[in-house]
Amino acid sequence: MANITPLYPEPVRLDFQGINRAALSALPALLGRWLPDGKKQGHEWVARNPRRSDRRPGSFSVNLNTGRWADFAEADARGGDVISLAAYLSGLSQFEAACELAKMLDLKGGAQ
Q1: DSSP codes of every residue in 68-89
Q2: Nearest partner of 96 among 80, 107, 83, 79, judged by Cα
Q3: What counts of helices (H) and strands (E) characterise the chain?
Q4: Edge-to-edge, what's the strand order for the sheet holding 44-47?
Q5: How buried is 67 (Cβ within 10 angstroms: 0-12 exposed, 13-18 middle, 19+ buried)?
Q6: Fewer CB within 10 Å: C terminus or N terminus of the chain?
């Protein structure tokens, strides 16, 4: 019998909660990299949305305690965690963004 290679490799499992926890603890540094023109205002990071022509900060914010984020000028631009923010800002899927965050944060158990 011929040796058949599967078309799809074994599925990769990610610890989304673990990646989000690690990303949340590094959130100020991540936001400084992703949204460098933003600034901390109370428990929020307020910045211009780099995905649209936003002239000044104000409508795009990220909660530094929870990772929830929203652009109040765009109805569908909001999310509940750091992975969804990374996906939105980079134009990746949530899975791809989680993989990238795991690499960026040097998480050994990110992909299983």
Answers
A1: -EEETTSTT-EESSHHHHHHHH
A2: 83
A3: 4, 5
A4: 39-41, 44-47, 60-63, 69-71, 78-79
A5: buried
A6: N
Measure the CA–CA gap between 48 and 60, rounded to whole angstroms.
6
Q: Is the pTM of this model over 0.90?
A: no
The type of residue at 44 is: E
Tokens 């990746």 — which residue? 92
- Enumerate residue ranges in the chain where pLDDT < 70: 1-12, 109-112
Angle ∠(94,98,99) on CA atoms, nearest 5: 120
Amino acid at 98: A
Q: Please give the full DSSP string across 31-62, using - where no structure is assigned.
A: HHHHSTT-EEETTEEEE--TTS---SSSSEEE
Model confidence pLDDT, tens digit, residues 18-50 = 999 999 999 999 999 999 999 999 999 999 888
